[in-house]
Design a protein that fits this description.
Blueprint: H1 4-12, H2 16-35, H3 37-48, E1 67-68, E2 71-72, E3 77-82, H4 89-95, H5 100-109, E4 124-129, E5 138-144, E6 147-152, E7 158-163, E8 167-176, H6 181-186, H7 192-202, E9 216-226, E10 229-243, E11 246-255, E12 258-262, E13 282-285, E14 304-308, E15 314-316, E16 321-329, E17 333-339, E18 344-354, E19 363-364, E20 369-373, E21 383-390, E22 393-395, H8 410-427, E23 443-444
Antiparallel strand pairs: 1-2, 3-4, 4-5, 5-6, 6-7, 8-9, 8-23, 9-10, 10-11, 11-12, 13-14, 14-21, 15-20, 16-17, 16-19, 17-18, 18-20, 18-21, 21-22
Length: 446
C-alpha cells in the first residue's frame, strides 16, 4: 500500500511535514497583522515612499474602471450613437427589445422629467446592457454638456435627470489687433460666444468697422467649466479697448432694478446709440454726396453707410424707439424706419425680411433684432444701407458726437466707484506673465 506521505510529496513536491511547517508560519504572520497592524502599515508606506521604479514588491497592475454617468461602463455591453433625422425614442427602444407596453409605461412616467419630443437630431445617446441578447438595462441621452437623462429599463421603469455641476472661473482675455477683433481672439482659441460678449460690452464706444492695426483690448470675464471642459462664457465684468492713444472702458454694474455697462465716470453706456446695426460686418460704401451708383451708372448722393454681411445676418436697432415704417419700395427694398426721439430717426434698407412682430407702431429696444440682411431693391449684394436723420436732415452718423448721458445718482456713485476700482485692479493685474505684450487673444487666469 502506498505511503500517504509519499503521495503528498509526489503531488506537490514537498514532504507533508514541510507543508505543515509553512502553514504554521503563515498563521503566525496573520496573527501578527491583527495584533500589530501599525507596524505593517508603516513598513508598507516606507517602501512606497522610495523611488517608484524600485516598488517591485506587490506591483500588480491595477485596472481602473471607466466610470461615466454613474456607471462602471466596463461591466456593460455598450452601443453609442447619435439621434438620426426622423428617429424617435420609442423606435430606438423597440428596436432593442423593449415591449410596446413598457415603452408606454416609461413615457407616462417621464411626465415632468423628460419631454419625449425633445429627443433631438444629432444629440448623442448610449445604450447599456449586461447582455444585449436579453434587452437593455439603461439608455443615457445627453442633450448638452450641462445635463443628461438616464432611462432605467429593467425591473422598475423610471427616468433620472442629472444636471452636471458648473464651475465658474474668472479669466482674462487680451490681444493686439492685426486685422479684426474676431480674428485676434479666434486665432488664440476664444469662442465666438466670448467675442460677441466682448463686442456687446464695447459696442457703444468702439466702431468695430474702423479698427486699427496695433489696437489693444483686455477683458475680465467669467468662464464656465463642466468636468474641466470649457463651455459657455459668462458675463464680461470689465473691458478696456485702447486705440489712437485713448482707452475706452466698460464696467458691468447692477443696482436696484438697473443693470448694464457704465464708463469710468458711472455714466450708462446704453443711453447712446450703437456704432453699427450689424455685428461682424464690413463697410462696403460710405456716406458720400458724389457717389457713382453701381446700378444706375450715374453720380447720385449716397446718404447712408452700407454694411456688407452674409444673407440672413441679424440687423439690430441702434437705439430705443418706435417703428414708424416697415414697408417695401423698388429702390429701398424691404426697409424699417425707427423714430428714437424728437430729433433722431434711423432707417435700415434692403432687408431679406422683417423680424417677427416688426410693424408700424412696434416699440423697439436698443439692440433688438428688427430684420435680416438681404439684397432687395436696388442692391448688388447682401448688405444693409443704414441711414441717420438729425432734425429731419440725413447726416453721416460716424461723425456724430452725442452729449454724454447723466451719471448714476449721487447716492449710488460711491458704491459704483468702489466696485469699479476692485474690477480695475483685477483687469490690470498682469501677475507674473512675461509675454503679456505678445499675446494675441490669449486666455489666461488672472
Amino acid at each position: 500500500m502506498p505511503d500517504p506521505e509519499q503521495i503528498q510529496k509526489n503531488y506537490i513536491g514537498l514532504p507533508l511535514r514541510s507543508i505543515l511547517a509553512i502553514a504554521g508560519f503563515s498563521l503566525v504572520v496573520l496573527g501578527a497583522l491583527f495584533v500589530f497592524p501599525e507596524f505593517f502599515r508603516h513598513s508598507q508606506a516606507s517602501v512606497r515612499g522610495s523611488n517608484p521604479e524600485e516598488n517591485i514588491i506587490g506591483a500588480f497592475p491595477v485596472v481602473v474602471p471607466t466610470v461615466k454617468y454613474g456607471f462602471a461602463l466596463d461591466t456593460f455591453q455598450t452601443v453609442e450613437g447619435e439621434v438620426q433625422r426622423g428617429q424617435i425614442l420609442g423606435q430606438l427602444l423597440s428596436r432593442y427589445g423593449l415591449s410596446a407596453e413598457n415603452i408606454e409605461i416609461l413615457f407616462q412616467r417621464s411626465n415632468g422629467v423628460f419631454r419625449v419630443q425633445d429627443f433631438q437630431t444629432g444629440k448623442p445617446y448610449l445604450l447599456m446592457s449586461k447582455n444585449l441578447d436579453k434587452g437593455l438595462d439603461h439608455l443615457v441621452y445627453e442633450p448638452s454638456l450641462y445635463e443628461y437623462f438616464v432611462f432605467h429599463l429593467k425591473d422598475s421603469l423610471w427616468i433620472e435627470h442629472v444636471e452636471r455641476p458648473v464651475e465658474t472661473r474668472t479669466q482674462i482675455a487680451e490681444g493686439t489687433i492685426e486685422s479684426s477683433l474676431w480674428q485676434a481672439m479666434e486665432d488664440n482659441g476664444a469662442s465666438p460666444a466670448l467675442i460677441a460678449k466682448l463686442e456687446d460690452a464695447l459696442q457703444w464706444s468702439i466702431d468695430f468697422h474702423h479698427l486699427q492695426q496695433g489696437d489693444y483690448f483686455r477683458a475680465l470675464y467669467d468662464q464656465q467649466f463642466v468636468e474641466e471642459t470649457e463651455v459657455d462664457p459668462g458675463k464680461v465684468h470689465a473691458a478696456v479697448y485702447r486705440t489712437g492713444g485713448k482707452e475706452h472702458y466698460a464696467i458691468y454694474y447692477e443696482h436696484s432694478d438697473e443693470k448694464g455697462y457704465y464708463d469710468l465716470q458711472g455714466r450708462p453706456m446704453n443711453k447712446g446709440f450703437l456704432k453699427a446695426p450689424v455685428r461682424f460686418s464690413r463697410i462696403s460704401s460710405h456716406f458720400n454726396l458724389s457717389r457713382f451708383h453701381p446700378i444706375l451708372k450715374r453720380v447720385r448722393p449716397h446718404f447712408g453707410t452700407d454694411y456688407a454681411a452674409p444673407y440672413g445676418t441679424e440687423i439690430l436697432a441702434v437705439g430705443q424707439g418706435e417703428v414708424i415704417e416697415a414697408s417695401y419700395s423698388s429702390g429701398n427694398g424691404n426697409y424699417v424706419k425707427i423714430r428714437h426721439n424728437k430729433q433722431i430717426t434711423t432707417q435700415y434698407l434692403h432687408m431679406q425680411r422683417f423680424a417677427k412682430g416688426i410693424r408700424r407702431g412696434t416699440k423697439i429696444r436698443q439692440g433688438q433684432v428688427i430684420g435680416y440682411v438681404g439684397s432687395t431693391g436696388l442692391a448688388t449684394g447682401p448688405h444693409v444701407c443704414f441711414r441717420f436723420w438729425m432734425n429731419g436732415k440725413q447726416v453721416n452718423h460716424l461723425r456724430m458726437n452725442f452729449p454724454p448721458p447723466d451719471p448714476l445718482p449721487k447716492e449710488e456713485l460711491g458704491k459704483f466707484f468702489q466696485y469699479r476700482d476692485e474690477l480695475l485692479a483685477k483687469l490690470n493685474n498682469t501677475g507674473d506673465k512675461g509675454t503679456q505684450t505678445e499675446a494675441k487673444g490669449a486666455v489666461t487666469s488672472p
